[in-house]
Design the sequence.
């Protein structure tokens, strides 16, 4: 929790309360439905919460923006981002029903009003979103194929609509077909060297109907 305060010093009392509540909620739910690996649950703030918030160091989400979190699992990166941006709407999608159950329980436990969830494959989701966020779901070409028709036209809420994907490893092959991709390194924002998945890939996509 101290890590969150260190890198996000302007949180309100309500946001601090919600971030603090995550520990117990995930500890309890993870015993029933495994959404975070056992070794990671003790490092929830480092490996999951702060990691998810790395996206916010690259891109701020404005009031009224609409974000889709694809393959959210137990709610990452969507839930930490939803606490940080309470005026932005987040739709969290996963193809596994019991993971969405955890998302719903945590969201309800926190009293988060800006999150909805859907148990479906992302290919079945209709609608357009200002940004699509994700972590550890699929290789970029597959991912782009799934979501490219779901990016909203640029509007007053957003200037750089597209995908924001937390990724690790050597990305050169995966991103060879995407010359407009920008790769941000989380180590430029956080001094701890703790992430296996160190990069945020921003891929601007044109509105497609
Ligand atoms: C490795 S987990 C990552 C979960 C979460 N994003 C995280 O970083 O903790 C990948 C998740 O993507 C989901 N998934 C894979 N393909 C999907 C698809 N086409 N549509 C929706 N969810 C999908 C899986 O069910 C799984 O929960």
Sequence:
């Amino acid at each position: 929790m101290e890590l969150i305060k260190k890198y996000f010093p302007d949180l309100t009392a309500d946001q601090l309360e919600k971030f603090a509540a995550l520990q117990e909620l995930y500890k309890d739910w993870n015993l029933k439905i495994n959404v975070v690996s056992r070794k990671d649950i003790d490092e929830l703030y480092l490996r999951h919460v702060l990691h998810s918030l790395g996206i916010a160091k690259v891109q701020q989400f404005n009031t009224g923006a609409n974000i889709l979190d694809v393959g959210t699992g137990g709610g990452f990166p969507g839930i930490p981002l939803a606490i940080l941006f309470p005026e932005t709407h987040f739709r969290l999608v996963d193809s596994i029903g019991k993971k969405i159950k955890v998302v719903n329980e945590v969201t309800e436990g926190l009293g988060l009003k800006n999150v909805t969830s859907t148990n479906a494959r992302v290919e079945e989701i209709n609608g357009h979103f200002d940004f699509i966020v994700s972590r550890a779901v699929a290789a970029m070409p597959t991912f782009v194929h799934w979501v490219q028709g779901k990016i909203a036209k640029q509007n007053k809420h957003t200037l750089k609509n597209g995908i924001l994907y937390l990724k690790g490893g050597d990305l050169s092959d995966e991103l060879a077909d995407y010359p407009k991709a920008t790769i941000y390194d989380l180590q430029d924002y956080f001094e701890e060297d703790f992430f296996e998945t160190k990069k945020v890939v921003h891929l601007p996509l044109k509105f497609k109907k």
About this structure: DSSP finds seven helices and seven strands in the chain. The CA atoms of residues 130 and 159 lie 9 Å apart. The mean pLDDT is 91. The chain has one domain: 2-204.
